[in-house]
């Protein structure tokens, strides 16, 4: 029997069977030999990719990432719940590295690094965020994990395609807030875990290669097809975590940032003027919708079934 910590790896997938197949293939070669695999997906049984790890499939068609993750947490039986996207491939030592800091009982969350499609450049390393959801790069020297204790105004941000959480800690805060259907969902969890007294660790050697596959909200070239949900999520985040006087300036700055992003796509012919205007209008509509959303968390009970690790090869 392995002495490694029991981990539930959750993959949320929507409409990307080919990309998902590559992710599942990468998970087959993990050094960590004590994990179960849970896939929350809209795919019908006849089109699900084959996988020697014998994942447990949860059928879910709603486009709500937080709700899908909560289903994965509820079904999980490991002490740790790890997440990877269906357009990412982990290095073979990923899960060992990502879960190592949980040997410290103060750690409630860990996050790793993400490389881009070329396998060299980084998409994500160590980043903190404040109570307005604004990111701040935080240089880390070396490759050893670094544990950050909770703080009132700066929080380690774990990227959704490469993160893990102590299951009991997640359950105690009610899991993911399902009002965040997309964007800032992990940030909200990170903040609430910090407020509950948990430390968080950045793990440089826990690497995944993230492809940024096309999806409902972006093209394969990362051109947004809608800004409604990111607008709604930001406004919801600000309502629950930001000082009141900081909300309007943050929304103005975010609106300007998104406009600059769209103009870059427009200048190289990836976006026409009509779509640019529509996207900016949707962003404003998202702000209005997010202001009306209420937090939606739930009690997550332990799974009644025993932990059964995936077969090793």
Distinctive features:
ten-stranded mixed β-sheet; 13 strands; globular; alpha/beta; 313 residues
**Low-pLDDT runs:** none
Strand composition percent? 15-25%
**Tally of alpha and pi helices:** 8
- Pairing-aware structural class of the strands and helices? alpha/beta
Shape: globular
Query: What summary fits the major beta sheet?
Result: 10 strands, mixed
Q: What number is the mean pLDDT?
A: 93
Question: Could you tell me how far the N terminus lies from the C terminus, measured between alpha carbons in angstroms?
Answer: 15 Å
**Portion of residues within helices:** 25-40%
Number of DSSP strands? 13
Spatial extent as radius of gyration: 19 Å
Quaternary structure state of the chains depicted: single chain
Helix-strand sequence? EHEEHEEHEEEEEEEHHEHHH
Account of the protein in words:
33% of the residues lie in helices and 20% in strands. By secondary structure, it is of the alpha/beta class. β6 and β7 form a beta hairpin. The longest helix has 24 residues. The chain is globular and about 55 Å long. 44% of the residues are buried. The mean pLDDT is 93.
Short structural description:
By secondary structure, the chain is an alpha/beta fold. It contains 8 helices and 13 strands. Helix 6 packs antiparallel against helix 7 (244-267).
Write the layout of secondary structure elements.
Layout: E1 7-13, H1 17-27, E2 35-41, E3 56-59, H2 65-75, E4 80-83, E5 88-90, H3 94-99, E6 107-115, E7 122-124, E8 127-129, E9 135-137, E10 146-148, E11 155-156, E12 163-166, H4 167-172, H5 185-195, E13 199-210, H6 228-241, H7 244-267, H8 273-292
Parallel strand pairs: 1-2, 1-4, 2-3, 6-13
Antiparallel strand pairs: 4-12, 5-13, 6-7, 6-12, 8-9, 8-11, 10-13
Helix pairs in contact: 6-7, 6-8, 7-8
